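INFO batch 0412 | record 1 of 1 | parsing
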Amino acid sequence: MATVGEALIRLSKSKFRSSFHLKERDKEYVREKGLDKIRSHAYDIIAKRLAPAVIENDGRQTPTKGHPVFIAQHACALCCRGCMSKWYKVKKGVALTDTQIEKCVNLLMAWIEKQIL
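INFO prediction complete | emitting tokens
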């Protein structure tokens, strides 16, 4: 995976990925909970929904609303293993490493932080 900055620049050039934005209620939720809690949510979501080698409903497991991390996942192409494979060359059928999970969370948090400024 590229650096967070490189990934954000590349994503910003995609018409589809750059169409995602946090709504005001999502921004308020982030402010209310705090970035540490949102990071914890992001880690849990990635670990449970993307990290396993086999994902039962891959390609349909990430809603497009309901939590700021879900929106960030779509904006960052971390919504399913198919998008991760296309954008970051992460192989399907192989569990994510702790390092890969951490990189995903860092990218999601960088995107969220840019949105709430």
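INFO post-check: The longest helix spans residues 98-116.
INFO record closed
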